Amino acid sequence: MGTVLKGGYVVELEPALVERVDLRIEGERIVARGPDLTPAADDEVVALSGKLVFPGLVSAHHRLHAVLGRGMPHPKLETYQDSLEKVLWPYESALDLDAVQVAGCAGGLEALQCGTTTVCNLHASPKAVSGSLVRLARGLHEVGVRGVLSYAVSDRLGAVGREEGLEETVSFAKKAKGRFRGQVGAGPCFTLGPDGLQGLAEALKTLGNAGLHLPLAEDPLDERLSTERYGASPVARLMEAGLLSPKSQLAHVGHLEWADLAQVIATGAWIVHTPRSNQGLEVGYAPALKFGHRATLGVDAVSADLFAEAQAAYLRSREAGQPIDVLRYLANGHRLVSQVFETPVGPMREGALADLLILDYLPATPLTAENLAWHVVFGLGSRHVEAVMVDGVWRMWARRPLSVNPTVVAEQAREAASAVWARMAESKA
InterPro entries of this UniProt entry (predicted)? Predict the structure, then answer.
């Protein structure tokens, strides 16, 4: 038994394509594409009446746990370092495993409702390390979203904390399957000493097929403290440790000298642009046009809305006089995930995994391959997401999640958030 999507406009991002064709899904994959497919006797037929069939979106740098921190009270912040030391790090230290799982579910639900079907998540909960990635995966599994998960290893809390983080990220990566994969994660370079870098290298060697996921040069603080503490820039240290490769994912990349950025690009690493997060932290505009052909988008700790992220990325690049190809940035998210899962994700073609969106978008002007980018930037939004399929299974239909109750998820999230905030307050007392 399969599912046939009839009468929709199928969209591909690069090369851009808008075509009125049918798709047939069987199991987890697209198995046929054509202008007038004949359904089998037991196929489910979905009449789309001109709606868009759009690839599920990818957040290549995500922080699921941040969903429980929205609106929490915090002191006045003067610097980026303040945001880490007075807010982010105390918040992460207040997370327990139950909160982590609730955040996975609540953050996954938000992603689903926004049309984001895959999140590449970098997690940290220093007082609840062991089992944290499994708990995140359980939360995502409840919703049905695809996840690439890693723990942010650092030396910030000493050798014991570092080794716990390494053990967690390696352990999860070894057993991840189905909609889940693991990566080797890390905190900012200035939180990693020589032992930390060596531990990451050994973890990558142990896993073989995993890449490194870390924030790089989000603020000038990364280079300043790396140089002060360890005598070299973040890129120089990563290169010396042999940590950068075509499997690496580097988020932010806002404050690098051109020579360092050129070295990063030459390794083939993915560079993940996070414009809304950068604006929120007031860390300046990352030069996205210079990121090379393997640049993509992530939301970091803001909402999981990749349509909003793409729009912010394009408009900020225009403002900077360096306009980017927003369709390529979105399509590169699919290429990255296809690399991680070692199978096509994103193309609306035979053989690809069926991660897709039905968008109830009725444009007021013609929609063509030539103007698709303009519709993405100035017209499309998460408000148009009507249905979501992940791995060939409908996870949202008629704007209603099918495996969780949004009211219950929200109630659980508020309860967990209140407990986390209370622990933060107690730690400061």
Answer: Amidohydro-rel, Metal-dep_hydrolase_composite, Metal_Hydrolase, MTA/SAH_deaminase
| Tokens 């990220």, located at residue | 169
- Mean of all residue pLDDT scores within the chain: 97
Angle between helix 306-319 and 326-341 (nearest 10): 130
Tokens 């189905």 belong to: 178
61: closest CA among 256, 317, 270, 226?
Answer: 270
Residues in the chain: 429
| pLDDT for the residue 1 | 85
> How does residue 76 score in pLDDT terms, banded at 50, 70 and 90?
confident
Provide the H-helix boundaries in 132-250: 132-143, 159-175, 194-207, 220-230, 234-240
Provide CB contacts within 8 A for 428, sequence distance 6+.
90
pTM strictly above 0.90:
yes
- Residues contacting residue 376 through CB under 8 Å, at least 6 positions apart: 307, 310, 311, 326, 327, 330
Q: At residue 428, does pLDDT exceed 80?
A: no
Residue 370 tokens read as 């030539």
What is the enclosing helix (H) or strand (E) of 117?
strand 116-123
Distance CA 154, CA 229 (A): 14
**DSSP of 353-397:** B--EEEE----SS---TTTHHHHHHHT--GGGEEEEEETTEEEEE
Q: Rounded distance, CA 259 to CA 369, Å?
A: 36
Half-sphere exposure (CA, 13 Å, Cβ side) for 273?
32
Percent of the chain with pLDDT over 90: 97
**What are 108-145's pLDDT values in tens digits?**
999 999 999 999 999 999 999 999 999 999 999 999 99
Long-range contacts of 31-35 (CB under 8 A, 24+ apart): 31/2, 31/350, 31/351, 32/350, 33/348, 33/349, 33/350
Q: Left if phi > 0, otherwise alpha if psi is -120 to 50, otherwise beta: which for 104?
A: alpha
* Domain residue ranges of the chain, discontinuous segments joined by +: 2-55+354-400, 57-341
Domain 2-55+354-400 CATH superfamily: Urease, subunit C, domain 1 (2.30.40.10)
The helix/strand/coil state of 300 is strand
Q: How far apart are CA 264 and CA 270, in angstroms?
A: 9
User: Residue 16: which pLDDT band, with cuts at 50, 70 and 90?
Assistant: very high
